[in-house]
Amino acid sequence: MTSALVVIDVQNDFCPGGALAVPDGDAVVPLINRLMPAFPHVILTQDWHPPGHASFASSHPGAEPMSLTEMPYGPQVLWPDHCVQGTEGAAFHPDLDTTRAELIVRKGFRRDIDSYSAFLENDHETPTGLAGALKERGITELVMVGLATDFCVKDSAVDGMRLGFSVGLVEAACRAIDVNGSLAQAHQALKDAGVRLIEAEHHL
Questions:
Q1: Farthest CA pair distance, the chain
Q2: In whole angstroms, what separates CA 109 from the centre of its chain?
Q3: The Isochorismatase-like domain covers which part of the protein (predicted)?
């Protein structure tokens, strides 16, 4: 099988000091950099929101960050403004080695719909184009790393399985937000989808 390392959203706003910091988020960078040479293909994803995105609490008067609202596509967490297009917060972590990335997939750029998964936006219908790009390259096996385990990494891994890829996840190269039991729910969703949890040493 032809494999790719898929690096999910290792951006400044998801690292300590960022607008939506994942605890210990920057700790994944050295391990991800070490994993990259073991894969013939490296793909990066990048959260890329326009100002005033519908998933921002600031776009909903009176709403608190991390509260829930209903969108046409279902429940949506309202986040602090983060990864706004062209800002330093949206940039990749400066220590992340981006030189081997052959593809960068930007997601969440449609103002009215959020996008956790690298494959599908949160309506679970609108494609990002990643699946087609992988299939055209003959890539059948994916290993997921990045931020955050319980949101974008989990959704990407589960969707990858549904779309016919073999998917593994190196949890040591991920970190979670873990809000309202989201990490436990993510572990169950990954197990139910058949995503393999693998040790980093398997690829080093």
A1: 50
A2: 14
A3: 3-201
In which residue are the tokens 């220590």 written?
95
- Indicate which residue of 107, 114, 155, 174 is catalytic: 107
- pLDDT tens figures, 3-23: 999 999 999 999 999 999 999
Rounded to 5 degrees, φ, ψ at 153 are -70, -45
Task: Tell me the C-alpha distance between 6 and 21, whole Å.
Answer: 20
- CA 56 to chain CA centroid, nearest Å: 17
Residues 13, 26, 114, 152: which is the catalytic one?
152
How far apart are the C-alpha atoms of 147 and 144, rounded to whole Å? 10
Contact between 111 and 53 (Cβ < 8 Å): yes
Does residue 154 have an active-site annotation? no
Among this protein's residues, is 174 annotated catalytic?
A: no
Dist CA 119 CA 125 (whole Å): 9
Candidate list 9, 47, 81, 114, residue with the active-site label: 9
Confirm whether 152 is a catalytic residue: yes
Q: CA gyration radius for the chain?
A: 16
Look at the chain and count its residues.
204
Class of domain 3-50+81-203: alpha beta
